[in-house]
Amino acid sequence: MEMPQKKRTKDKIMTSAWKLFLSQGYEETTISQIIDASATSRSAFYHHFHGKEDLLFTIAYVYDIGYDAWYAKCDLAQHAIDKLILFNQFVMTNLENSPYADLYPSIYGLQVMTSSSRHILNQDRRYYKILRSLIKEGQENHEIDSTHSYAELTDVIANMQIGLAYSWCLQQHRFSLVDHGERLLKPFLETLRIEKTK
Q1: Are the C-beta atoms of residues 89 and 67 closer than 8 Å to each other?
Q2: Distance from C-alpha of 101 to C-alpha of 168, rounded to nearest angstrom
């Protein structure tokens, strides 16, 4: 019974913080406001988080829930490259249409400067696990070129997507992340395609 209560408290703090970040901005939000809005205590806050930036970084894990839902509905009969193209579209769409898009500059900036965990690069996230799984399975089925390991290809694709999202933030959302992601990643993914012989 103790663990569910701890999780509820942690979730309340996260949800309250995200709402405050969206309504008044990350910089303007204080830890005291988060504690008040979540109806928790300062000790409960620091039990779960080192500080305000930790809460901002947890937004990365929200997207993983959507990636899991996408993966569960994925057509396993499709060619591995087609699945990767669709996954890329889904990732870019989620990023572009997210209610948290205005927080990306803070997330990226603080992740560069932080001395603690870089959650965007956390290989245990579902995003990375799904990407690795799609590539590994494609290589095992001889649908994806095996010149590079699935781990190397995962890093390349993830870095391309992170770079695109960062550029999109730098240019203040002046272009469609979905369209740009399609134009830049799809040709690369196609170079990895191996067509099965009948």
Answers
A1: no
A2: 10
As given in the structure block, the two tokens for residue 19 are 């709402």
Other Cβ atoms less than 10 A from the Cβ of 38: the count is 21
Tens-place pLDDT, residues 113-164: 766 666 777 788 899 999 999 999 999 999 999 999 999 999 999 999 999 9
- Give how far the C-alpha of residue 11 lies from the chain's centroid of Cα atoms, to the nearest Å: 18
- Quote the DSSP letter at residue 147: S
Residue 193 pairs in a beta bridge with 144
Q: Is residue 20 a contact partner of residue 29, using CB atoms and an 8 Å limit? A: yes
Distance in angstroms (rounded) separating the CA atoms of residues 198 and 196? 6
Q: Supply angle C-alpha 99, 103, 108, rounded to 5.
A: 130
pTM score: 0.84
Q: Give which of 9, 128, 13 is closest to 64, Cα–Cα.
A: 128
Taking phi over 0 as left and psi of -120 to 50 as alpha, with beta for the rest, 165 belongs to alpha
The letter for the amino acid at 45 is: F
CA distance 92 to 128: 15
